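Researcher: For the record, we're logging two predictions in this thread. I'll number them. Prediction 1 follows.
Model: Prediction 1, sequence and structure:
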Amino acid sequence: MLPYRSTVQNLLLRGLDEADFSTIAPALRHVILPLKEVIEQAGETIERIVFPDEGMISIVASASREDELEVGIIGFDGMTGLAVLHGTDRTPERTFVQVYGSGWEMSADDFRTFIAGRPAALALFLRFSRAHAVQVMQSALAYGRFSLEERLARWLVMCHDRLQQDEIALTHEFLSLMLGTRRAGVTTAMHILEGLGMIRSKRGVVVVLSREKLIETAGGSYGVAEAEYARLIGVRLGPDTAGGPRLKGTSLMA
């Protein structure tokens, strides 16, 4: 299924100029991204690049199977395969689907061929890579300097940015991995945010009731990476971001 520019939700693909999009389109395949599907396995050759339209992908660093921590998330704002973008073929991190969705994929070889001949597209993808690096650095700051409640609020707003909906399918098991804490700590933090009217938690789902209160609670842990993404990509993430899942068929250029 060849993608039409007007139906693609991924902000990077939509940010390509017409000539670059026409060049990359034949190499793209529409894919479903099922929950927990591994996109990149640590230490193994990266075979494909994924540009999500919907859903969310996690990048997880690990010292062992028992010592894992999420270091980055990707939704319709970005792409996987940053190691390939930077000239290598593998990464020590594991990348998997955290929230079910769909998107577009191409082989790593086709991607290398594409960026070798399209300097404007390469520049766009490198700007995203830089924005994503800032996200990772801000996550490290959050883990080291902010409370569990502040980190949870930050992470929920980041999910809200990328999923563009108030109901977020998340289990406490996933939240524990994402926040680097035990499930009991997640439960306590969820109860605090729920008691303050920011969220409602039900089995496997977190409902955002007040994005504004979550941002206020997150404090300085949220906002720096988002401002850098807006500066580098030219799109500010948030509810109803142009091109997001709620705005199918709209144009970034409108």
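Researcher: Logged. Prediction 2.
Model: Prediction 2, sequence and structure:
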Amino acid sequence: MNILIFGPNGSGKGTQGALIKKRFSVLHIETGVIFRENINKKTDLGNKAKGFIDRGELVPDEITVPMILNRLQKSDCKSGWLLDGFPRNLAQAEALADALTKAGMKLDHVIEIILPREIAKKRIMGRRICAVDNNHPNNIFIDAIKPVAKEGKLYCRVCGSEQLGVRADDQDETAIDKRHDIYYDTKTGTLAAVNYFRNRTNLIEADGAPGVEEVSASLLARLS
């Protein structure tokens, strides 16, 4: 089973991707990891990508797409893959679809986690990080994972630690808005990429507003 997953920052896309990976034994592939692996291993594509990154430029699709395709063709992807973080725009969607077709690789499903922009932003800014274990989910804007409030202080809902912090980039509204500008753009951005696949493969839409369990139950039922 080969899957693309889309969702704005704050939609819980990473969490749902991990659950899908576990349920269907597919490899969860994040494009950022592909870049780091190629750069660290000094592959030809990695060296080319590093040159653009070092100059503060975007890596061209003619480097990114082959890099991703090479990863999807490795032996550990034979049982299926879930690609997360690419494509980010319409041009990349077209390039990826063309590359998959030429490689004889079928795309079985495209998942879109739908979440209104303002809710997505609040969820990002509401994240609270437990210093004991940063995998403990706490968010002041999500009822199901709100930290415990006692005597004017917030405590981790999992371990009870008072050591809750925030990531600086989670509080940078300008940076959040820039990422969301790209995602919610229906003409050339990420939502344009989603719409490109809408009539080309099985598109599964999931409301990202409910809790993690409700969203995962909806997705897993339609992927089965």
